[in-house]
Amino acid sequence: MSDPYSYEEPPVAQDASALMIRAVPRISLQAFCETAQMIEAVQEAAADRRMAKAHVKAFPGGLAGAIDFFESAPTPNVILLETRMAGEQLLAGLDELAGHCDPGTKVVIIGHTNDVWLYRELLRRGISDYVAMPVDAMDVVRVISDLYADETAAPLGRAIAFVSARGGVGSSTIAHNVAWSMSTTFDAATVLADFDLPFGTANLDFNQDPAQGIGDAISQPDRLDDTFLDRILAKCTDKLSLLAAPATLDKPLDLHADDFEKLYEVMRKNVPLAIYDLPHQWSGWMRRALIEVDEIVLVAAPDLACLRNAKNLFDAIRQSRPNDAPPRLVLNQVGLPKRPELDPADFRAALGADPIAVIPFDAELFGSASNGGQMIAEIAPRHEIVSQFDVIAQVTSGRGGVPRRAKKSALIPFLDKLKLSKG
Ligand SMILES: Nc1ncnc2c1ncn2[C@@H]1O[C@H](COP(=O)(O)OP(=O)(O)O)[C@@H](O)[C@H]1O
Ligand SMILES: [Mg+2]
Q: Which stretches of 41-132 are assigned E, i.e. beta strand?
């Protein structure tokens, strides 16, 4: 029988370049293709989360089709043209198309020849970009995203969401400790945002009582910019800030799917590493949040309810993020005395993924930390659980290399012990 506690190296961000493509703004795009392969690439690109705001249509017909179409129709923000034409024939065709184009329309050519002279000539005539086949869906997303890179020129922050397979499995606790790990291990400003507006515990865990927080970010989206964000953040350390939840029940909360839209935008532009501590629920804004972020950590305890919910969440997330790494599974509260538990192997069989961390149940350690408003690393810096938070930080931040504190084999001694205690 295979060893249920065998540990495989955590997969580091699979396609880091794909993950760092900026979301495309609310534009219209029409593609005129010559090959079925290109139509498919455009349709797949349109389904990518980074194109969620763009309005995309793909047609056959290539350059001739486009000329025909735009004779009687207004041009969109972007025309994507696949063509086998080259040289003077292509230039003449484009001149004709230009006659029907609105001045603001950007034209991108997907060509079948790799020709530097042609490339230069096209750019000189105002074509936005020329890319040679073969072109896949992510190439399309990248090229369109690049067209708008100037408008969102600030550096692009990375967002990591923590969700739970059921309430109380420790997703918030792990999110807070991983935020701490990131802020101490990597030399980058980190913001922990508590999205559990009525019940969030981030302020308790960090022993903070800020007057403002995430509630202000969504009640005044028009005012939200870098200065305003700075004002509503509570500084925990030099590198770590908290966007706290109001944690009050004075009015019922029915959030809309796009209530956090401005916050995402401002965070992306101003915060290198953002941790989104999401509550256990399934709503329009939750689904939107799970499309917005670069990485998702799914925390589960080793029980049947978590296994079923984790499977459903995995499936839903994989479907809405086909071009991204699947969620990272973390098993928490493992080894609670006398409790019958599922194995990591059961999760592997159901989800097709290994946990990137398996964290033991430790009532004393977690209880002291949470009652004292401290992180585990503050009260027990050398504890093996701390190195697991470091592993999660490393995998999800996409920052290469092993974090300072974490040893590569950090999990192995713990897993050995766990095996022994299981008998
Ligand atoms: N590994 C663990 N061992 C013991 N207690 C834990 C562990 N992880 C979390 N806890 C405790 O479980 C409780 C619920 O944690 P929380 O992070 O609020 O869960 P969630 O956000 O998933 O609802 C907290 O009291 C926390 O201290
Ligand atoms: Mg929580």
A: 55-60, 78-83, 106-111, 129-132
The answer, yes or no, to whether any atom of ligand 1 lies below 6 A from the CB of 173, is: yes
- Answer yes or no: is the C-beta of 302 below 6 A from any ligand 1 atom: no
Q: Hey, where are the domains in the chain? A: 21-152, 158-421
Using the structure block, give the residue that is written with the tokens 């839209």.
261
CA of 168 to the centre of ligand 2 (A): 7
pLDDT in tens, 281-315: 999 999 999 999 999 999 999 999 999 999 999 99
Predicted confidence band of residue 244 (pLDDT cuts 50, 70, 90): very high
DSSP β-bridge partners for residue 334: 360
Fold of 158-421: Rossmann fold (3.40.50)
The preferred substitution site among 164, 169, 173, 384 for testing ligand 1, maximizing ligand atoms within 8 Å of CB, is 173
Nearest CA to ligand 1 atom 8: 170
389 C-beta closer than 6 A to ligand 1: no
Q: List pLDDT tens digits, range 108-120.
A: 999 999 888 999 9
103 backbone dihedrals φ, ψ, rounded to 5°: -60, -30
Is the minimum distance from the CB of 164 to ligand 1 under 6 angstroms? yes
Q: Which atom of ligand 1 is nearest to the CA of 277?
A: 21
Confidence of residue 18 (pLDDT cuts 50, 70, 90): low
Fold of the domain spanning 21-152: Rossmann fold (3.40.50)
Q: How far apart are CA 138 and CA 421, in angstroms?
A: 47
The DSSP letter of residue 184 is H
* Triad 231, 371, 252: Cα angle to 5°: 55
